[in-house]
Amino acid sequence: MAETDLAAGGRLRDRVGSRNPAPIFAVLGVGLLAAAFAVPAYETVLVAWGGTAVFVALLLRFVMGEPTLSTAVTTDVYETMAGNVRRRVGAGRSRYVPADEGVTLVVAGDELDPVGRRLLATVEAAPGESLADHLAVLVDVLVSDLELAGAARATAAEDGATVTVTDSRVGTGELFDHPVASVLGVGLARRLDVPVSVEATVEGDDLVVTCRLEGAEELRDRPEPDQHGEDEPADQ
Fold it and tell me: Nearest 5°: phi and psi at 32?
């Protein structure tokens, strides 16, 4: 049998170039602006058209600059991998525990690398703030930075917090180290430097993540950081 070469995605791209039409609008805009100087009689119209084309090029560059995966594909990958791990380690309580190399996910005595550790790798921790402050940052990160949720609301208590997420971008058919729960568990454990137990449940169309701080009493008893950056009294 003769060998057969198969390919996908090349023929259309060879005919029309990149799928992002930003370069086409950019060239068109520059050409129109140049024509405005060459044909003064139509300067106003050509400048308007050229400026619009350049603006569209910039908009397309930022909106369509990088390829994206659909929610369905992301969910399928996550749920398959999470299901495989859960069958290996069981369905015990998820604890996010601070460690020297970062936060570790501990389930039934096994230590794993949580999804949230990689997702939060570029988010700076801010020591010395309250649980509510940390929670506000993490909720904003979930919605605005990572875009893992369409909306989220949180309630902080002395010993933990409850976060309700609407329109999770990753499906909730599998909840083992779910990206939303993992970001919250890792973020709070890292910022507060205490183990955090996390439970994720589905209530209607919402994903509800309950976080419990282990050693919450010791956390409340910690002294506030010295605002003067020294251990000496402020009046010295």
Answer: -65, -40
CB-based contacts of 129, cutoff 8 Å, min separation 6: 191
What separation, in Å, do the N-terminal and C-terminal C-alpha atoms of the chain show?
90
Q: What is the DSSP letter of 221?
A: H
3-class secondary structure, 136: helix
What does pTM read for this prediction?
A: 0.69
Please tell me the distance from the alpha carbon of residue 78 to that of residue 84, in angstroms, as a whole number.
10
Long-range Cβ pairs for the range 43-48 (8 Å, 24+): none
DSSP string covering 71-114: HHHHHHHHHHHHHHHHHHH-S--EEEEEETTEEEEEETTEEE--
Question: What is the distance, to the nearest Å, from the Cα of residue 132 to the centroid of all Cα atoms in its chain?
Answer: 20
pLDDT digits (tens, 9 = 90+) for 89-138: 887 789 999 998 889 999 988 999 999 999 998 776 555 578 888 899 99
Query: How is the chain split among helix, strand and coil, in percent rounded to 5?
Result: 45, 20, 35
